Amino acid sequence: MLTHFDGKGQAHMVDVSGKPVTAREAVAEGRVVMAAGTLALVTDDRAAKGDVAGVARLAGIMAAKRTADLIPLCHPLPLTRIAIDIDPDPALPGLRVTATVRTGGQTGVEMEALTAVSVACLTIYDMLKAAQKDMVIDGIRLLRKEGGKSGLFEAAP
Amino acid sequence: MLTHFDGKGQAHMVDVSGKPVTAREAVAEGRVVMAAGTLALVTDDRAAKGDVAGVARLAGIMAAKRTADLIPLCHPLPLTRIAIDIDPDPALPGLRVTATVRTGGQTGVEMEALTAVSVACLTIYDMLKAAQKDMVIDGIRLLRKEGGKSGLFEAAP
Amino acid sequence: MLTHFDGKGQAHMVDVSGKPVTAREAVAEGRVVMAAGTLALVTDDRAAKGDVAGVARLAGIMAAKRTADLIPLCHPLPLTRIAIDIDPDPALPGLRVTATVRTGGQTGVEMEALTAVSVACLTIYDMLKAAQKDMVIDGIRLLRKEGGKSGLFEAAP
Amino acid sequence: MLTHFDGKGQAHMVDVSGKPVTAREAVAEGRVVMAAGTLALVTDDRAAKGDVAGVARLAGIMAAKRTADLIPLCHPLPLTRIAIDIDPDPALPGLRVTATVRTGGQTGVEMEALTAVSVACLTIYDMLKAAQKDMVIDGIRLLRKEGGKSGLFEAAP
Amino acid sequence: MLTHFDGKGQAHMVDVSGKPVTAREAVAEGRVVMAAGTLALVTDDRAAKGDVAGVARLAGIMAAKRTADLIPLCHPLPLTRIAIDIDPDPALPGLRVTATVRTGGQTGVEMEALTAVSVACLTIYDMLKAAQKDMVIDGIRLLRKEGGKSGLFEAAP
Amino acid sequence: MLTHFDGKGQAHMVDVSGKPVTAREAVAEGRVVMAAGTLALVTDDRAAKGDVAGVARLAGIMAAKRTADLIPLCHPLPLTRIAIDIDPDPALPGLRVTATVRTGGQTGVEMEALTAVSVACLTIYDMLKAAQKDMVIDGIRLLRKEGGKSGLFEAAP
Q: Membrane spanning segments where (chains A, B, C, D, E, F) (predicted)?
């Protein structure tokens, strides 16, 4: 039932060699919840203080390309697009991170999108931890997945 | 105010060359929330179906060692211990992940512990996603940090 | 005569751009020879003592994906399957490791299968070296190769 | 009894934070066994045909530096010396590989020396596989280890 | 106007999923300028003193395969050929480095060729820096690019 | 005479185990020469168009941490500071890149500073190549080096 293990319960990188190459896209999200004062350090006068979102975006993009190196049973895939949005949300308060990844490959890019979000969130934590240590990374989940045999998945709102 | 940026707002890897080498430890946690039926796939007859926690634990340990490669402004540190616990929690339902990391170095290992937790959670998601796509990775936070000038930090319960 | 060097004796990554993309598979094997008492540490009551084979299998799978990073003149290939079997053999005594790798690519995956076997064997050595330092890694060889212009290769028994 | 697993049988990177930093050295060896005609491709007129040993030596040196990335439970160590000898042995026939690694660290460098030997052997196989597919990598073992609490180890001849 | 940034000025890895896979090649060059006496260390009696060009060539080949890991917004590409020439030029005096890279992919390999040249030049500097610290790496540029929608580019002589 | 090769002309990672750990710093520079119109794309209304220098700075910082992975005979070092300045120079016209790296280690950080500059320059090229393909990366050199037995080095102006 768990496809990443064979009949004897041994982990393997599952055979996708018979699957067709198709266009695939995945979108994932997550958030870093912090104090309002910490969020203000990010949003106030960004040019002078440093571009927290810019650094985190780069980290997420680079991490997406290393997903198969980090997640043991993930297939290496030729990614064709990676985009990351990072937006302040005063209602949390905190930062919301969304990643979109595309490939033309034999398996999906959910893990690449989720890895991009996770590493972007970790990078935000790293840059703000001198100001606040009890931030929380929350709500990392798949929003949407398209392409491949299983077709479209869209998360409940 | 944000130490990862200089006076002109430029990102840099901050100078720790004047800081003493001290014993440091950090503990972080996170959880993967899933349906009860998905959790049962992990906990029922683990030997036959495959050791989800074992694979995730390895992934987290290996990721901790690559933290400075993933988080742009992190210092490379000679890690001296990495341990990861992954426990089922029927009340979530889901799996709870805790990582403990030690070093003798000039800066702390919070990011290594948080990275280990994040990648272990992503690996759990990867192994179970064929059964359930709407799992959520939640509550990634620092539990405890010891050593260095800032001394002991313990998260509120 | 050595294809990895040009007419002046200079190493290069040989041009495969004119070769067709075909289904390819390679199987390789190796063994770690140890004392019977060391092998017993692996096979007796595996659940309580720790899953040596499980850790080594993961290490081999992850190493296969990094072959082109390790072997200087290897082409990067989109691997579509990696499976590793690790079985105790009391007659050695020791552990036998077999790796199977597949791709759809322009060149074969022998090196990926051999790298997976080698790193799985090294990982076994690492986990058991506190018990025995004079274990030997032996008999790493290609068992079978299929696909591509050179067709089927099968090792003598 | 297996130090890489805790009391519950869970893999961890064992705590070395209490161990002193000492000078450590390890020497490992291995061999690639091939047909006499294949060995002649390596030894005859090396300058014109290409320097197989030179490429393999580099690959082994670079792999030693990545040991903690490849072997899941290995500690990262600041290597201070890596040297690799590759010598033809007509009696095999084949090539003998020896690696010497040093560090000043809290744990030994056996795995670094064994990894250097393994990757050098794999690289030799890669460069010669167009000439002979049934070469065998054999006899990878620790020759000598010095430094640290367990003191001197020397392999039987 | 800068394709690596979106309409809001945010960096992204640009979408190439709609572009066809075509044969692509890029050639880049660079040089390390040094004193005549330093160049003599490289060219005199190369076999006895060590093969500076051989080591630099390998470093460049391996770096080309890691371009997408180093350059944040580069797409991962399945490289099908990497060749590097390193020639002494007494008129500089110094060493000239040329790299040729091919792929069948959706975007060009200029960055792979330029990265190969840069890392080969850095490696030359590293091996000769004990003899001369004020060498200069100069003239790294694209010589030629072929394939893809933008067609042929050739540098002015 | 070339320290990176032994008496037989074989490349090795030279033994630094007997050298003391001292504070070391290196500063390197380089430049990307381009058309005035290309430079204007970087300097005009940076916030709206995208932060070319910010992306290149991050790439250089991350590359410095991977120097020992890229340059075959470089020792791994625990970097304690990495800072990169990127400034427009209308007189070139182009961008000037300067990198400063510190460590407490047994060997110098020249290669880390030079690698940071090189990868930052390559990243600038990557982001601007859609506008101009014949930019040139020039003048990569060591400006200053301090610490260790060889003492202070300062480049001629």
A: none
